């Protein structure tokens, strides 16, 4: 087991070096960058498509979409009106790394205000890889069950913000967004939390207001 | 990138050697072994608890529960009446490996008919690691969206059987189990598919009948 841990450390150290370079580039362009992580099917793509629609021309938003395979999500987000979209296919790797971001932004459009990175659907490894972002956001679906914050503490602690999505299913599930929030705060008391339904629009105004404030921080 | 791929190959080769040893042990004990994989929150634990309840004394079932942290799931499955339960905490690793199974079964109860391995909630890496099992089963929740088979083809192709769970939410979601099944078969036409609600019991009889047949194959 020890040998494998050493290998992982080396990979993470290499990633940190690249991430610092990527972050410096984003800083020099005054670009706000948010890395969104979640389980498969929690609703990242729908949330991002709805976010991009609301920003329209007011905030010029770019999106990097990470997936194992397909460009399905990139097409949806492009159709929603994102100013720049690139799809990364990891061909079996379970997380994005800073080197993939560096390649992806090599030909990025100029003049973007906000770059959102949609990470691979996985609650484990993505938490370990710095991508040069300003904020890490965890997206949880209410359907996943309120035990998940305790079961995936690394992810919940790696993030400063949590979106609890699919709250439209509260009554069908018999689970409240409030109880999920309570569990999440037990794992990470510093989380700032949004409750949303990307499907019917509930809670999206507050979420978009926060993203606007992230852009404004960059001046 | 090449360097990393080489490391992964080495890890997988080492895993295959251990898996062959674990499989030989299971064969010598006529033990049927099923490896269940899914996203976080798809319902593995509830399905297994309900399965174990139904088998009661007719099929002596052991369960290995993989998690990043906590023994929450092991307690639930033990309370449901499993004959032997062991929790593996991977401390941040996103999949189970054959070496972990070998350690876990070192002190396994004698006389089990069936061993179910509940893998880490992750649709990527667990697909690559042989655990010495007879069958690999993928559990998908209807809530994840019908695009998932195309987006995680490695997992869908690594499995011979698929359980589509949470079908009680069909009307709340506006998504049918049939449409999910259709998408899954496009990625892997050989999948044998069950549709279940572990919550209300729908479809569990057919699932349990299949597990019984797996036990009977061992004679």
SSE layout:
2 copies of one chain form a homodimer.
Chain A: H1 2-28, E1 32-38, H2 44-55, E2 61-67, H3 72-79, E3 84-89, H4 98-104, E4 114-121, E5 135-141, H5 148-151, H6 153-158, E6 161-165, H7 170-173, H8 177-187, E7 192-195, H9 204-217
Parallel strand pairs in A: 1-4, 1-5, 2-3, 2-4, 5-6, 6-7
Question: Can you describe this structure?
Answer:
2 copies of one chain form a homodimer. Chain A has a single domain (2-217), classed as P-loop containing nucleotide triphosphate hydrolases (Rossmann fold). Helices cover 42% and strands 20% of the residues of chain A. Chain A contains 9 helices and 7 strands, in the order H-E-H-E-H-E-H-E-E-H-H-E-H-H-E-H. Chain A has helices at 2-28, 44-55, 72-79, 98-104, 148-151, 153-158, 170-173, 177-187, 204-217; strands at 32-38, 61-67, 84-89, 114-121, 135-141, 161-165, 192-195. In chain A, helix 1 runs parallel beside helix 4 and helix 2 packs parallel to helix 3. Mean pLDDT of chain A is 93; it is low at 1-7. Chain A binds chain B through residues 1, 4, 7, 11, 39-41, 67-70, 72-73, 92-94, 99, 120-125, 128, 141, 143-145, 147-148, 150-154, 166, 169, 172-173, and chain B through 1, 4, 7, 11, 39-41, 67-70, 72-73, 92-94, 99, 120-125, 128, 141, 143-145, 147-148, 150-154, 166, 169, 172-173.
């Amino acid at each position: 087991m020890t040998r494998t841990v050493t290998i992982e450390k080396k990979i993470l150290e290499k990633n940190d070096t690249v991430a610092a370079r990527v972050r410096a580039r984003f800083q020099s362009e005054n670009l706000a960058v948010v890395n969104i992580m979640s389980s498969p099917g929690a609703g990242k793509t729908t949330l991002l498509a709805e976010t991009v629609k609301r920003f329209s021309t007011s905030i010029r938003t770019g999106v990097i979409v990470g997936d194992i395979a397909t460009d399905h999500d990139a097409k949806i987000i492009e159709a929603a009106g994102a100013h720049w979209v690139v799809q990364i296919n990891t061909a079996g790797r379970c997380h994005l790394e800073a080197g993939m971001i560096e390649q992806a932004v090599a030909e990025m459009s100029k003049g973007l205000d906000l770059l959102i990175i949609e990470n691979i659907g996985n609650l484990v490894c993505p938490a370990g890889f710095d991508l040069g972002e300003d904020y890490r956001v965890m997206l949880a679906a209410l359907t996943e069950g309120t035990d998940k914050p305790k079961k995936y503490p690394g992810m919940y602690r790696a993030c400063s913000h949590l979106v609890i999505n699919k709250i439209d299913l509260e009554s069908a599930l018999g689970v409240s967004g409030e109880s999920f929030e309570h569990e999440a705060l037990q794992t990470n008391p510093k989380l700032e939390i949004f409750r949303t339904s990307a499907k019917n629009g509930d809670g999206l105004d507050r979420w978009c207001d926060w993203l606007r404030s992230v852009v404004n921080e960059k001046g």
